[in-house]
Design a protein that fits this description.
The chain is an alpha+beta fold. The protein is built from 5 helices and 6 strands; from the N terminus they run ααβααβββββα. It has 2 domains: about 80 residues, Winged helix-like DNA-binding domain superfamily/Winged helix DNA-binding domain (Arc Repressor Mutant, subunit A, Orthogonal Bundle); about 70 residues, Ferric-uptake regulator, C-terminal dimerisarion domain (Dna Ligase, domain 1, 2-Layer Sandwich).
Length: about 170
């Protein structure tokens, strides 16, 4: 990846630095990472780097279309190196897991606006929201435990009442 990242940066007219190469590696290794997560990963690769340097470099990489920035509602910006294919995202409302989803329909921009208001539309961004399987299973387990605890509590109360009535 470092050689590929170096070449990619050069082809896009971006100055090659150890920090930018490390950021490219971090984004590639952890798609949909926040800037803070990228910062942690870059620090593990090269040591010290300021959060501001990561934010600045991510901004340059987004401007040069080497990294894609998505900003789901109520969430910090996330970054990925999958660019140029106009894919969409599916996000778990519970844990925030984010996965790529192929284009909704047809060719880029995937969706046709009913009225383009004179715009030339070149991209559509769709975010699907839901609850992932592990979170659904976890919720079912917690619900089952609560029901069991509630039943146990009710049974204990009923036994106490029965004893009092005897």
């Amino acid at each position: 990846m470092p050689a590929a990242a170096t070449e990619l940066l050069r082809r896009h007219g971006v100055q090659v630095t150890a920090q930018r190469v490390a950021i490219m590696r971090a984004v590639s290794a952890r798609p949909h990472a926040t800037a803070d997560e990228v910062t942690e990963d870059v620090r593990a690769i090269i040591g010290s780097i300021s959060r501001q340097a990561v934010y600045d470099s991510l901004g340059v990489l987004v401007d040069k279309h080497l990294v894609r920035r998505i900003q789901p509602a109520g969430s910090p910006a996330r970054f990925e190196d999958r660019v140029g294919d106009n894919h969409h995202h599916l996000i778990c409302r519970t844990c925030g897991t984010t996965v790529d989803i192929a284009c909704a329909v047809g060719e880029v921009p995937c969706l046709t606006a009913q009225d383009d208001h004179g715009f030339v539309i070149d991209e559509a961004e769709v975010i699907y929201w839901g609850i992932c399987r592990p979170c659904r299973k976890g919720a079912a387990t917690r619900s089952s435990k609560r029901a069991t605890a509630s039943n146990t509590s009710s049974n204990t109360t009923n036994k106490s009442r029965n004893k009092e009535q005897s």
